[in-house]
Amino acid sequence: MPVPVLKPTGVTNESFAGVTYHIEGELVPVLHLELSGERVYFEHNILLWKDPSVEVTAAVMPGAMKRMLAGMPVFVTEAKGNGRIAFSRDGAGHVFAIHMKQGDAVDVREHQFLAATHQVGYTYSRVKGMASMLFGGTGFFIDTFRCAGDAGVLWLHGYGNVFEVQLAAGEVIDVEPGAWLYKSPTVKMDTILQKLSTSLFSSAGNLTWNRFTGPGTLGFQSYSVFMATE
Hints:
It contains two helices and 19 strands. It is mainly β. Strands 2, 3, 4, 5, 6, 7, 8, 10 and 13 form a nine-stranded antiparallel beta sheet that branches. A seven-stranded antiparallel beta sheet has the order 1-14-19-16-9-12-11, with no helix packed on it. The longest helix has 6 residues. It is globular, with a radius of gyration of 19 Å.
C-alpha cells in the first residue's frame, strides 16, 4: 500500500467548473470564491463575507425531517451572481477541493461538507450496527455527493491536516474511527475490534478501527472528529 500523501494546504487562482477559488490561511483557513453567474451551495453557518452583488438564499436539504431528528443540518444556503464570497468553519483545520467529472461520486462523513457547485448533487445514508458504536449506537450519516453535470467542485473541511491514499483492489488500511473523512463508494468500510492483552494474560482493553478495503480513494484527518466536536 502506498504512503498517504498530504493534500495541498493552500491554493491561489485555481479554476474548475467555471469557478475560480482560493484557499488561504494556516490555522483556520478561508475558502474564497469568485463567481461569474455560477451557483454554489454551502452550510448556512460558514459564510464569512461577500460582495453585495452576490445573492444568498436558503434551501431545504433532502430528507429534512430525518436529519432534524438526528441533529444534522437541515438547511443549506445558495449563492449566485457576479462577485466574491468567502467561507470559514469555526475550527482549526484544512480546507481542500475535490474536482469531479460527470458520474464521479464521493462518500463524506457527516459535518465535514463545506460547499459545492450546483452540478454536484447530494444524497445521504445512515450507518447503523457495529460501525455506529462510537456514536452511542444511534448511527451516523454519510453524505454522498455525485456530479451530474460535465464537471463540478466539492469543498470539504478536515480537522488538523488531511491526507489521501489510493488503495488498489484488495489493499487494506486501518484508520482510527474519528479520523476517516471521505472515500470512494467502491471502498468498503468495516469496524474492527482489537483486544489488548498484558503479559499476565489479562485484558488491557480494546482498540477500535475502521478497516477500509480498496479499490478507490480514502481521505483522513489527523485530528479526531470526536475530539474536535466535544
